[in-house]
Request: fold
Amino acid sequence: MGRNKYTAHIAVVASAVGLSLAVWAAGAVTRTEAEAGAGSGRPTAVRSPAGGAEGPAQAPPKKMPESIAHAAEAGGTAVNITIDDGPDPRWTPQMLDILERHGVKAVFCMVGPEAKRHPDLVKRVVAEGHRLCDHSISHDTAMDKKSVAYQKRQILDAKKMIEDAAGGAKVEYYRAPGGAFTPDSRRIAAAAGMRPLGWNVDTKDFELPGTASIVNTVKNELSNGPTILFHDGGGDRGQTVAALRQVLPWLKRQGHAFSFPVRTAP
Reply:
């Protein structure tokens, strides 16, 4: 071939070799970064198409069973203490003090805006080893008659409020206000990683029946099942505080351990 054609041929070959080396080098850097992340135990950043890091990949929440939980994780004669409608700056700290004094852990079913108003209490609940439960945005006991879109907002917006107030701790249960569950609300909660939570013993403390009545309801209805419902928000809970001081030691004397409600078992 002529000198000019030969020179052009050499230039094309050199260009192709250079491109191949650049592609190989980019791949090697990517592999090295991924291997470094895996070896260090650090999550590898996910890169956007533009090349910018987007942070660690977030796994979707584990889907829970949609059935309403009542049983205790510990089984046997263990009981679950559940406390609704807070957090409340007057009553929640008193109940936390009583629970701590007796070494009992509970589930706190929180109303979203109350959690947002009192993040210090939400963080204390988590720090002391209790579990969080979503109790909706507005405590609408007629939620079961509303649209699916409305139910979804009530559930998922409250979940975010509670988790933000908690500093990232996860909400593990969803309890419908007044027990107004629907197949849709249970599905929405379960898909978001929250087990629908019921109760077996309703102390009706929100009716202010008197401390003795609250205590007797627990004693008389515990045979219904292990999950007991109290309230720390929504009104004057002085009777509930006084009843809790009596109920916890009585349960211990009867040989009951304390547990959390089941999450993963159907």
